[in-house]
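Troubleshooting: if your tokenizer reports a length mismatch, compare your output against this known-good record of 178 residues.
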Amino acid sequence: MTGRVFSGSGPFLMSEPALEASLDALASAVTSQGSVDLVVGIAGGGVWPAAGLAARLGAPVYRVTARHNPSDALRTQATGQVSVHLDAPLADRLRGRILLVDDICGTGATFTAVARALTPRLEPGCAMETLAVCTNTGSGQRPNWSAHAVDDWVVFPWEQPPVGIRLVPLPAPEVTST
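Known-good structure output:
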């Protein structure tokens, strides 16, 4: 597992308008490759962007709970250990194109663990793709879709900003795909 990079250039602030612009750009890029049958939001941080993408893509949304960070403290390195809980209800068999969504890909371990947990439910020919609003430049794994490459911590609209910390606004989204 490659470690997250915290260069000191942030922490970055993902405002609600910046998030909405990022989701618009991501939805456009994803639909250029065809329709999506199911969006899976990885809780905690992936739930809000998953709901926004599902609405834009006209797909149902489902929630999976995964925990990777040992705490919510600023600039916390990941442990590499991810616990996954499949929230009810989820179909026993999953079909079509499935989009796993998280707020940030720090190392790729969360995507790997969630994909592993969902794999026994996949029908033959099912395609599972990953999407992160942001990807840390130190991540050893790149999601299929991302709007921002970051080299420091990101504070999202649903999070409480750290007291006394100057936040740097993220630039406009620049979607990348693998």
